[in-house]
Design brief:
alpha+beta; GMP Synthetase, Chain A, domain 3; 2 domains; three-stranded antiparallel beta sheet; three-stranded mixed beta sheet; 4 helices
Length: 136
């Protein structure tokens, strides 16, 4: 399986702007710029797209891990924060609030750690990944 996206950038780094389009058209000429990346401008940015990808990938991987263990989550609420520093992306912090009927705290922790280590985006990222997982 392969997925594609296209970025078009016009101008210099600070005053320029660009648009992102994904194969699925979920992003379709979606604006990004210096201001949307480093300030509070309108549009998206690569780091929030990585955060969305990591949160979504982790949640789906966890659902498969749980299914293999005989559990089905009522809900997996995942928040991901990507930190960008001078040296690049310096961390991905996952916060999970899960409602999973019948699971023990130990089994939950084991499943969440498995998903953190083995979701494809976790494997792709070359940074520290933290996980704060809570059963609700």
């Amino acid at each position: 399986m392969k997925r594609t996206a296209t970025a078009i950038w016009n101008g210099n780094g600070k005053e320029g702007n660009g648009h992102l389009t994904t194969q699925s058209a979920t992003l379709n000429n979606t604006q990004y710029s210096y201001k949307s990346r480093f300030e509070q401008g309108v549009g998206t940015n690569p780091e929030e797209l990585i955060a969305a990808a990591h949160a979504g990938c982790f949640a789906m991987k966890l659902s498969f891990v749980l299914q293999a263990a005989g559990f089905v989550a009522d809900s997996l609420d995942v928040n991901c924060t990507i930190t960008l520093g001078d040296a690049g992306i310096t961390g991905s912090d996952l916060v999970l609030k899960a409602k999973i009927p019948g699971i023990s705290a130990d089994k939950f922790k084991e499943a969440a750690e498995d998903a953190k280590l083995n979701c494809p985006i976790s494997k792709l990222l070359n940074t520290a990944i933290t996980l704060n997982a809570t059963l609700v």
